[in-house]
């Protein structure tokens, strides 16, 4: 096989915004797509079937292959049902785009446990549950492609998005370990931080900025990570508005102490400890 042709790919949160664009793009490239969407509002309230159904209709009208799934990514049962839909409809699952998401912004002093939990549940637990449900099938067939939707708010921080940023960077942590565990089974696991005008970003940037960020710019990047040919794993890419680039953690040269240092010794060498001028790509010293 080549590209994504005949691959069965699950796109969560595909009833609108970026997920819809991914689903349309992948179907046009010959993938069989499970269009999953809970069909609720931006804050995660409500549910319905019309969002997923609408995108499935669009794909079929264009001659593509797709089935809907209305389950929530946020629970193990929902995730199993989503992957079950792929298995029932197409007999396999080859790729997952963990794209479903909600927003409950608040400055940290106003953050409510309920908003923290809701956002973590959909983004981080959702990424875990859906990937966990697909994983045994990917291992067994010796092939798989996972894309996690991360965010520059998680990678770099953003005012009012402590819950969202923690969840999004949590997904990068998941990518790092799954890239290691998946490598020997032909499973590639990567993250994309998109930038696009959707209902999620409708009121966070001026309209002239949003006009330059159509979701169409992101879909080919996500699709590339799902192809048979793309053997990369553990990457974090930012994509949007015509720009595509990689983000990576670097580590400074630092300082070595033969004996446990005193507070004064740490203080006196603080500039060297925090310097990044001789930084190199970071690695896990115990990995
Ligand atoms: P969106 O709100 O248009 O799409 C999210 C979709 O997920 C919605 O269709 C929603 O119904 C669905 N969804 C929500 N909870 C769900 C659940 N429990 N189970 C299944 N589906 C559920 O927003 P957008 O912008 O398309 O976001 C897609 C992804 O990209 C999200 O993960 C978001 O955090 C991420 N992202 C988007 C950015 C942007 O610039 N638009 C920036 C950074 C990240």
UniProtKB/TrEMBL annotation:
Q: Which UniProt keywords apply?
A: Oxidoreductase
Question: Matching Gene3D superfamilies, A to Z?
Answer: NAD(P)-binding Rossmann-like Domain
Q: Which InterPro entries match?
A: KR_dom, NAD(P)-bd_dom_sf, Peroxisomal_Beta-Oxidation, Sc_DH/Rdtase_CS, SDR_fam
Domain Ketoreductase: residue ranges: 7-203
Q: Which domain of life is it from?
A: Bacteria
User: Does the keyword Transcription regulation feature in the UniProt annotation?
Assistant: no
Q: Which SUPFAM superfamilies match?
A: NAD(P)-binding Rossmann-fold domains
Do you know which Pfam families this protein is assigned to?
adh_short
Q: Which family does it belong to?
A: Belongs to the short-chain dehydrogenases/reductases (SDR) family.
- Please state what the protein is called: SDR family NAD(P)-dependent oxidoreductase
Query: Which species?
Result: Amycolatopsis acididurans
